[in-house]
């Protein structure tokens, strides 16, 4: 399977508003995190929900975000959030602040 | 015959819709009532006790713990527990990191292992707040964590289902596996609460 990202890579979640059955929460769109695990490839829920079963599986990643990145207005401190995100929602980003 | 669902005009819309669909499928012979009852019993049969068994074994057997964290399905099978069709991931809480599970998009939960989630887990209040202010939500469950302990929220947005392996409480060295199992509640497996030692053992 060809994967675009590896563990440790910085990624930014795309900012997009496609209609339909999207499994990427709004609160992480546009935010930068780091890939902590590559889970393999799975059927794209955005197509599967409408019975399009023929398309190629999409790599899925666990991405870790600092809560301070997700919620700049909160006093998020050291807390973190991990989210499963499909590859087509991710683009490369510097991960320097996410060591 | 009047379908049962139609007799009660007070049923909420979706329940009425579900019951009507059930009645039509039964009437058309798509499945029998006995098959339906078996399926309901199957869905209702898992309990948080399954998770407590995994946790207690992991606490007393470090090699098992590593296997559980590496491949929860295979480790659970050693105890005769089926984790279900979805991949299950067990995340370990330590003195450095406390884990808590949510599904902000709907109510994904390891139902096959633990049974049905509590109502609060499915509530919009929990789902929206625990990602935004996890410590405030934890405090409402009576869970107060040190400032230097990371709270790590797991949003089960896609393929995996998550269960927390809680931190074994201090003062429980003398307890056997069965006694440990009894300490592990459902809310500890979600991460809303920490496991506490029995009052008689607390110092």
Model description:
- The complex is a heterodimer of chains A (99) and B (203).
- By secondary structure, chain A is mainly beta.
- Chain A contains 2 helices and 5 strands, in the order E-E-H-E-H-E-E.
- Chain A is 8% helix and 34% strand.
- Chain A is globular and about 45 Å long.
- The relative contact order of chain A is 0.31.
- The model of chain A has no long low-confidence stretch (mean pLDDT 92).
- With 203 residues, chain B is mainly α.
- In chain B, 46% of the residues lie in helices and 11% in strands.
- In chain B, the strands form 2 sheets. A two-stranded parallel ribbon of chain B has the order 1-4.
- The longest helix of chain B is centred in the N-terminal third of the chain and has 15 residues, at 13-27.
- In chain B, 33% of the residues are buried.
- The chains are: A mainly beta (99), B mainly alpha (203).
- Chain A binds chain B through residues 23-25, 27, 39, 42, 45, 60, 62, 67, 70-71, 74, 77-86, and chain B through 87, 104-105, 131-135, 147-148, 150-160.
User: From the coordinates shown, what is the CATH architecture of the largest domain in chain B?
Assistant: Alpha-Beta Complex
Backbone structural class of chain B: mainly alpha
Provide the low-confidence segments of chain B as ranges.
none
Rounded to the nearest angstrom, the radius of gyration of chain B is: 20 Å
Counting DSSP H or I runs of 4 or more residues, the number of helices of chain A is 2
Total beta strand runs of chain A: 5
- Give Rg of chain A in angstroms: 14 Å
From the helix content, strand content and strand pairing of chain A, which structural class follows? mainly beta
Q: Can you tell me the number of structural domains of chain A? A: 1
- CATH topology of the largest domain in chain B: the name is Nitrile Hydratase, Chain A
| Architecture per CATH nomenclature, i.e. the level-2 architecture of chain A | Roll
> How many individual domains of chain B?
2
């Amino acid at each position: 399977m060809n994967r675009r990202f590896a563990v440790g890579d910085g990624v930014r979640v795309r900012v997009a508003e496609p209609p339909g059955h999207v499994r990427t929460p709004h609160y992480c769109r546009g935010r930068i995190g780091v890939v902590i695990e590559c889970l393999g490839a799975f059927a794209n829920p955005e197509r599967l929900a409408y019975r399009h079963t023929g398309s190629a599986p999409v790599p899925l990643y666990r991405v870790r975000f600092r809560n301070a990145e997700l919620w700049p207005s909160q006093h998020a401190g050291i807390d973190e959030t991990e989210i499963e995100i499909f590859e087509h929602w991710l683009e490369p980003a510097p991960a320097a602040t996410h060591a | 015959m009047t379908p049962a669902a139609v007799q009660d005009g007070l049923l909420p819309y979706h329940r009425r819709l579900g019951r009507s669909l059930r009645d039509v499928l039964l009437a058309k012979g798509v499945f029998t009532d006995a098959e339906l009852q078996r399926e309901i019993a199957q869905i209702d049969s898992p309990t948080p006790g399954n998770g407590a068994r995994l946790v207690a074994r992991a606490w007393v057997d470090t090699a098992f713990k590593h296997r559980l964290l590496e491949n929860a399905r295979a480790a659970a099978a050693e105890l005769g527990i089926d984790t279900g069709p979805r991949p299950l991931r067990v995340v370990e809480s330590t003195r450095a990191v406390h884990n808590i599970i949510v599904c902000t998009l709907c109510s994904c939960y390891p139902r096959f292992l633990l049974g049905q989630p509590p109502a609060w887990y499915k509530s919009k209040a929990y789902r929206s707040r625990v990602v935004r202010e996890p410590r405030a939500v934890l405090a409402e469950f009576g869970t107060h964590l040190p400032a230097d302990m990371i709270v790590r929220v797991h949003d089960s947005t896609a393929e995996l289902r998550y269960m927390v392996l809680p931190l074994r409480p201090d003062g429980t060295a003398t307890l056997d596996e069965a006694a440990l199992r009894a300490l592990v509640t459902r809310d500890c497996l979600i991460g809303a609460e920490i496991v506490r030692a029995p009052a008689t053992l607390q110092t």
